[in-house]
């Protein structure tokens, strides 16, 4: 298949004919832009030739057919100020400062209402005799 790439153990190999490999298990991957990848582990023993039938399945939707079916639609561009996209509201200084003030106030309120204070130890009776 023209346009396909063959990888053995993660290294690209030319698809000109038989691929010589060492004895053992090898990872085979065949890729093509319009087909799903074919991935298999192949066990090769000494003095053996392995023939593999690569059955690649075509993607259900291919970008080329989508381009042909596309209607002329004008893309919506964001409003640019001086060629720069505007910052989102949560990155503005007032949003960051407001969030920081909210966290600080909440932390102070939790600390104030949950801390019994230094004098709380005097009020607790540990051992009554």
Number of strands: 4
| Terminal residue distance | 94 Å
What structural category arises from helix and sheet content?
alpha+beta
Catalogue the unreliable spans: none
Mean pLDDT: 81
Strand order, largest beta sheet = 2-1-3-4
Order of helices and strands: EEEEHHH
Largest sheet: 4 strands, antiparallel
Number of helices: 3
What is the alpha-carbon Rg in Å? Answer: 34 Å
Estimated helix fraction: 25-40%
The portion of residues forming beta strands comes to: 15-25%
Morphology call: elongated
Q: What would your notes on this structure say?
A:
Among the domains are: 5-59, no CATH class; 89-116. It has 129 residues and is of the alpha+beta class. The model has no long low-confidence stretch (mean pLDDT 81). The chain has 3 helices and 4 strands, in the order ββββααα. Strand 1 (5-8) and strand 2 (11-13) form a beta hairpin.
Question: In brief, what are we looking at here?
Answer:
With 129 residues, the protein is an alpha+beta fold.
Question: What descriptive keywords fit this protein?
Answer:
single chain; 129 residues; alpha+beta; 3 helices
